[in-house]
């Protein structure tokens, strides 16, 4: 029974400490905000300098271009896929186009067969 009381007390103390340090309006949060506020200009300069260096880095530029190209390609393919399908269906529905395609296919087959003989 004593062990249970001791374990419960330890758990309660641990939870109280955690709540005090991480809970809403915690002292630790206020302390961190004060430290950040006191060093705001230095932190700004550090972040700004590193960001500027990163933007000038050729490897970063290449990686960014590649990521942008991939994203744009996915977007365009997604949007164009439906449009391409519509156009193909229109062509398939048009008897004149179907006849032209069949004539072209027949010509390719005849050329291939004439080379086999």
Structural class: mainly alpha
User: In percent, how helical is the residue content?
Assistant: over 70%
How many angstroms separate the termini?
99 Å
- Could you tell me the strand content as a percent range? under 5%
The total strand number stands at: 0
In one word, what is the shape?
A: elongated
C-alpha-based Rg, rounded: 35 Å
Brief digest:
This protein is 92% helix and 0% strand. The protein has helices at 2-22, 27-38, 40-56, 58-93, 95-116.
What does this protein look like?
The chain is an all-alpha fold and 117 residues long. The chain has a domain at 60-117. Helices cover 92% and strands 0% of the residues. It contains five helices and no strands.
Task: Give the tags.
5 helices
Task: Please outline the helices and strands.
Elements: H1 2-22, H2 27-38, H3 40-56, H4 58-93, H5 95-116
């Amino acid at each position: 029974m004593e062990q249970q009381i001791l374990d419960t007390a330890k758990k309660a103390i641990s939870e109280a400490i955690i709540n005090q340090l991480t809970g809403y309006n915690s002292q630790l949060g206020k302390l961190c905000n004060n430290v950040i506020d006191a060093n705001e200009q230095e932190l700004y300069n550090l972040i700004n300098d590193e960001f500027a260096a990163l933007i000038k880095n050729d490897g970063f530029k290449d990686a960014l271009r590649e990521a942008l190209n991939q994203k744009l390609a996915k977007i365009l393919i997604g949007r164009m896929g439906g449009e391409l399908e519509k156009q193909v269906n229109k062509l398939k529905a048009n008897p004149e186009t179907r006849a032209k395609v069949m004539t072209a296919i027949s010509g390719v087959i005849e050329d291939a067969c004439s080379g086999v003989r």
